[in-house]
Design the sequence.
């Protein structure tokens, strides 16, 4: 369901359980937020070679968006705020498709 601000809510599905909620205007935006929570690899190339499948169900619908996701750590930019550490976690996703849940 679309909120007043145009964002949609997506719930992470793992082994039939639904927990973490991510929001975004598009499913990819929510998937990128979810990807940053994965265990990061040392570099992007190493992370991309071993992606993790994530499934996000759009709240209010039976659609499950399926992505390959990976995360890696890299040095924080020079103009980072004081509270930020020396490394940041970046993530990326590649959409595999959509499934519809059976009632």
Sequence:
């Amino acid at each position: 369901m679309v909120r007043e601000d145009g964002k949609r809510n997506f719930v992470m599905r793992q082994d039939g359980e639904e927990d973490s909620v991510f929001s975004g205007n598009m499913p990819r935006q929510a998937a990128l937020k979810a990807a940053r929570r994965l265990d990061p690899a040392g570099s992007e190339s190493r992370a991309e070679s071993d992606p993790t499948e994530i499934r996000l169900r759009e709240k209010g619908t039976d659609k499950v968006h399926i992505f390959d996701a990976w995360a890696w750590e890299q040095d924080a930019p020079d103009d980072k705020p004081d509270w930020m550490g020396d490394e940041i976690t970046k993530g990326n996703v590649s959409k595999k498709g959509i499934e519809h849940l059976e009632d």
